[in-house]
């Protein structure tokens, strides 16, 4: 890709999310599934607002998520891309170089066995890419911005996944 070390792209984090839609036993099973997949304790996400038609109340736990960083994130990402048979859709990339993948059944991920106690869950996997220097945008003292030439474009992200993971983008 680029020759400058400041232009090097890396995986910042991988966020795995299972939306169950109701609390109780299904929520506990989703938490077990995420723990089995990642080895981390999932965080619980509550409903943002009440939806009477679905029987959901504001603040009720309806989803679970785990954030992976560093080497764990890359190892999990390799398994997820293998589950998608090394084919990613171009429409899954946004204009800032992030990627979102949907997994229909968590047992499609290599190394995962079916557990009848848990069942089968679908999930969303979101990948955030980063370049050196992005940390300045997160600093609270100064309202610094990442320059346009330094931002990760959709094309940069596609090239990164082709090179690093051998993924085919359609």
Automatic annotation (TrEMBL):
GO molecular function: rRNA binding; structural constituent of ribosome; tRNA binding
Protein family: Belongs to the universal ribosomal protein uL5 family.
Name of the protein: Large ribosomal subunit protein uL5
Keyword field contains Repressor: no
Stretches assigned to the Large ribosomal subunit protein uL5 C-terminal domain: 61-148
Sequence ranges assigned to domain Large ribosomal subunit protein uL5 N-terminal in this UniProt record: 5-56
Species this protein is from: Candidatus Nitrososphaera evergladensis SR1
InterPro entries the UniProt entry points to: Ribosomal_uL5, Ribosomal_uL5_arc, Ribosomal_uL5_C, Ribosomal_uL5_dom_sf, Ribosomal_uL5_euk/arc-type, Ribosomal_uL5_N
Keyword vocabulary terms for this entry: Ribonucleoprotein, Ribosomal protein, RNA-binding, rRNA-binding, tRNA-binding
Subunit annotation: Part of the 50S ribosomal subunit; contacts the 5S rRNA and probably tRNA. Forms a bridge to the 30S subunit in the 70S ribosome.
GO cellular component: ribonucleoprotein complex; ribosome
Function (record text): This is 1 of the proteins that bind and probably mediate the attachment of the 5S RNA into the large ribosomal subunit, where it forms part of the central protuberance. In the 70S ribosome it contacts protein S13 of the 30S subunit (bridge B1b), connecting the 2 subunits; this bridge is implicated in subunit movement. May contact the P site tRNA; the 5S rRNA and some of its associated proteins might help stabilize positioning of ribosome-bound tRNAs.
SUPFAM superfamilies the record matches: RL5-like
Biological process, per Gene Ontology: translation
Lineage top rank: taxon: Archaea
HAMAP family the UniProt entry points to: Ribosomal_uL5_A
């Amino acid at each position: 890709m680029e020759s400058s070390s400041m232009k090097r792209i890396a995986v910042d984090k991988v966020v795995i999310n299972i939306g169950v839609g109701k609390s109780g036993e299904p929520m506990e099973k989703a938490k077990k599934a995420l723990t089995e997949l990642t080895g981390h304790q999932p965080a619980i996400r509550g409903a943002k607002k009440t939806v009477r038609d679905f029987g959901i109340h504001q603040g009720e736990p309806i989803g679970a998520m785990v954030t992976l960083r560093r080497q764990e994130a890359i190892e999990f990402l390799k398994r997820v891309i293998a589950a998608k048979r090394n084919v990613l859709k171009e429409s899954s990339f946004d204009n800032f170089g992030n990627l979102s993948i949907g997994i229909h059944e968590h047992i499609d991920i290599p190394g995962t066995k079916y557990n009848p106690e848990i069942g089968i869950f679908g999930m969303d996997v979101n990948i955030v890419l980063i370049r050196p220097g992005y940390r300045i945008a997160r600093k609270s003292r100064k309202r610094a911005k990442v320059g346009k030439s330094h931002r990760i474009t959709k094309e940069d992200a596609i090239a990164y996944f082709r090179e690093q993971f051998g993924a085919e983008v359609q």
